[in-house]
Amino acid sequence: MKKRHSSDYISGDDITNNGTITIKSNATNHGNLKVNSVTTNGTVNYELHTPITVRDGAFDANDLSNVTVKVGLITAPLDGMKFGEVVDNNLDLLTAWKYNDGGGAKKLFGPYVNGAYSNFFSDGSANGDDKTNDATLITPGKGYRASLYQGKNPNDGDLTSDGLLEFTGNILVGPKSTSVGSNSDGWDLIGNPYTSGLSLKAFVSENNNLLENLTTGITYWDNTLNPAAFVTKTKAELDATDGDIVIPPGQAFFVRPKTGTTSLNFKADQQQIQNGASFNRNSNALEGFNITLGNSDVNKSTKVYLNNTTTLGVDKGHEAAAIGLSTKGMGIYTLIADQSTTEALAIQSIPTNSIENTTLKLGVNAGLGEHTLSLESINLPEDLNVYVTDLANGSETLLNKKVYTFNVTDAPLEGSGRFIISFQSN
């Protein structure tokens, strides 16, 4: 066995547990336990760092109007636990959202189903009569949305930081197949099933032929951003990344499998020790830019890469569709350059050898009021100018030099009919 920085990791070939093993995590670090086999007559706990739900004033479980929900996308880091047991272990933390007619509490905890998060019912074994989802197994590898109270109970006390969701169960050491492909929107929420980090490069490489051509990579919810937002990584970005991107234990993420794919594969050799809580890492070898839609409260971005090995159409591993949740309310995306699909893209790649003849439709969803469009370079060549044309007034703005400000009046803006991106070499 090896141990480094007691809060970081323990790794070794075999482990025998005759007592209690507790693996801890916090906002900056997830504990890692990586072993080849486990013999246990004792207990294993994992305390999974999970965001809180912020409430302004008294918490009304039937009314979310005064509640800011912070989303945690998680999977079970241990095997064998049922939802009723999760509730019992975390009774004061799991957010009660709404009560059903029988008095049972609906928790802000559940899987992603057909384009939306679902919620489980349970009052736990000691409270009430609602047992609707008590026997539902919380399966490692399957993703769930979870949110905790900003108070230890609805009426008293506040958490000053995010909470710890406690799991008890068995350590997964071997391969794991996770069911996918049943959601009508094509997306599935899955997660790292191990008590150690997961190599994202190894996972995507293993499942590359099972993922949809337009979305060979992952999308995850990042609470470390301000405000929190969806982040997408393509296979091309992963391949260009210096080192690896490691998914923490218990972290869930979105994938889009090919039609007909029924499972994706996690393997023990994909495990990698991970010393931080976030799996953000930039791909410094690529060239391109972000275009950001902003207002006084929120910024959202879409990404375009410049790569002469790609085409104006769909290139597997280089494009990524935008999950519908990311463009609701306020969002920005592009459409594929050759218009072979009308799918909203979070990321696309275009060749530079014909870039002056290339235009991109820019999709914008925005509410009433003032908004901005701005450019952020990703190793963007200095001699390439990027313009945005606003078809509503005919104006053209060089985004390399100026932020474009526009107003939405009368009705919210939605779709790709107003803005076009074009290019010119200096």
Report on the structure:
There is one protein chain. By secondary structure, this protein is mainly beta. The protein has four helices and 38 strands. Strand 28 and strand 29 form a beta hairpin. The N and C termini lie far apart (59 Å).
Chain-averaged pLDDT:
83
What general form does the structure show? globular
Can you count the helices? 4
Largest sheet: 6 strands, mixed
Q: Determine Rg (CA atoms, Å).
A: 23 Å
Keywords:
426 residues; mainly beta; five-stranded antiparallel sheet; 38 strands; 6% helix; globular
In short:
This protein has four helices and 38 strands. The strands form 14 sheets. Strands 30-32-29-28-34-37 form a six-stranded mixed beta sheet, with no helix packed on it. A five-stranded antiparallel beta sheet has the order 31-33-38-35-36, with no helix packed on it. A three-stranded mixed beta sheet has the order 1-2-5, with no helix packed on it.
Topology:
Elements: E1 2-4, E2 9-11, E3 14-17, E4 20-24, E5 32-34, E6 37-40, E7 43-50, E8 54-55, E9 67-68, E10 72-74, E11 81-82, H1 83-89, E12 96-99, E13 105-107, E14 109-110, E15 112-113, E16 116-117, E17 137-138, E18 144-146, E19 163-168, E20 176-179, E21 188-191, E22 198-199, H2 200-207, E23 217-222, E24 229-234, H3 235-240, E25 246-247, E26 252-255, E27 263-266, E28 288-294, E29 299-306, E30 320-321, H4 324-327, E31 331-334, E32 345-350, E33 359-365, E34 369-378, E35 384-390, E36 395-398, E37 404-408, E38 419-425
